[in-house]
Amino acid sequence: MKISVIGAGNVGASVAYALALRGLCDELAIIDIFANHAKSKAMDIAQSTQVFNLPIKVNGGDDYTLVSKSDIVVMTAGSPRKPGQSREDLLLINAKVLKSVMENVKTYAPNAILIMVTNPLDVMVYLAQKFTGFKSSKIIGMAGELDSARLRYEISNLKGDADSKSMVVGAHNDKMIISKNYVKDALSDDEFKNISDDTKNGGAKFVELVGTSAFYAPAAGAVKLCEAIIKDKKELQSVSVILDGFACGRVASIAKDGICEIFELNLTQSEQEKLKESQEEIAKNIKFVEENL
Ligand SMILES: NC(=O)c1ccc[n+]([C@@H]2O[C@H](COP(=O)([O-])OP(=O)(O)OC[C@H]3O[C@@H](n4cnc5c(N)ncnc54)[C@H](O)[C@@H]3O)[C@@H](O)[C@H]2O)c1
Q1: What domain range includes position 79?
Q2: Cβ distance 27 to 2 under 8 Å?
């Protein structure tokens, strides 16, 4: 199993490190526009695997031949949010990065399953297909599992633990949906409201503290997707998927070929309206990129 991680920054390096230490692949490639940065991460991670005597080959650089024959490519290259920025402020900056990276992925790893992390996530998921022509079942956006982890973090801070099936669905922006239909823990109305607010604010709170976006928990979300693919788990995860003219969060079953089934969301009328609004916003942002790139 060969996995390539594009972008050796905070999220990319954390993905590569976690993949290596969990022994999920036997070959790992790390690519960044800053070749020495990627090489240094690869060397450091390769030395970490020696600590545990894990037989993993790790290479890094800016040369896309390193990505050849990857089974999975995790895309993390691009700018993260800075204080005061929304994920949407990154639209054109990261779409340009995505276009150049995807041309190389298409050339060197045409059979890979693509895990997208770069923000604004739902827009990038849709554009990744436009730039690669990959089947939509082979492009999966990671964000729902991060938002769900933040939800369970808030619940367990309050209640001591959280149901592992509680999840956040819908778009990866301020209109993410925290629905009682998907929260399996018993919460009063006040508790539900406070936990929803804190979960939605989880990303911004991190940006406020350190001036950039979170990385360990997002990396864990990407690794969870890799694991579901590698182990053919048919695991239900909250992921961004390509739909008709846009991409947005759905619950989908993840297995060896990528997305094997997408489920309709079970939402109340007002939640459905909110989902529709966020989908329209995503479609508008896609159009903006298409007209301005
Ligand atoms: N989906 C999510 O839930 C989620 C969570 C956190 C962060 N993110 C997003 O992930 C992305 C990366 O975040 P980060 O914190 O790792 O940022 P970072 O700045 O630490 O790392 C980004 C890396 O991308 C590299 N890069 C830039 N352009 C490139 C190109 N053309 N080719 C190859 N590499 C290139 C940079 O050199 C840098 O090393 C951001 O867009 C961020 O918003 C998404």
Answers
A1: 2-141
A2: yes
Check pocket membership of 67 for ligand 1, CB cut-off 6 A.
Answer: no
Q: Determine the pLDDT at residue 242.
A: 98
| pLDDT for the residue 229 | 98
99 and 174 belong to one structural domain: no
Set 2, 138, 172, 250: catalytic member: 172
Provide the CATH number for the domain around residue 132: 3.40.50.720
Pocket test for ligand 1, best of 32, 100, 127 (most atoms within 8 A of CB): 32
The reply to whether 131 and 191 lie within a common domain is no
Count, in order, helices (H) and strands (E) of the chain. Answer: 9, 9
Rounded CA-CA distance 22/30 in Å is 17
Which of 76, 147, 168 should be mutated for ligand 1, with most atoms under 8 A from CB? 76
pLDDT at 102: 98
pLDDT lower than 70: segments of the chain: none
Residue 287 has a CB neighbour count (10 Å cut-off) of: 12
- 37 as an active site residue: the answer is no
Strand partners, 235: 254
Which residues contact residue 286 at a Cβ distance below 8 angstroms, ignoring those fewer than 6 apart? 123, 126, 127, 245, 246
Task: Please tell me the predicted confidence (pLDDT) of residue 173.
Answer: 86
Pocket lining: 120 vs ligand 1, CB cutoff 6 Å: no
Is 105 annotated as a binding-site member?
A: no
Q: Nearest residue CA, atom 31 of ligand 1? A: 97
pLDDT of residue 112: 98
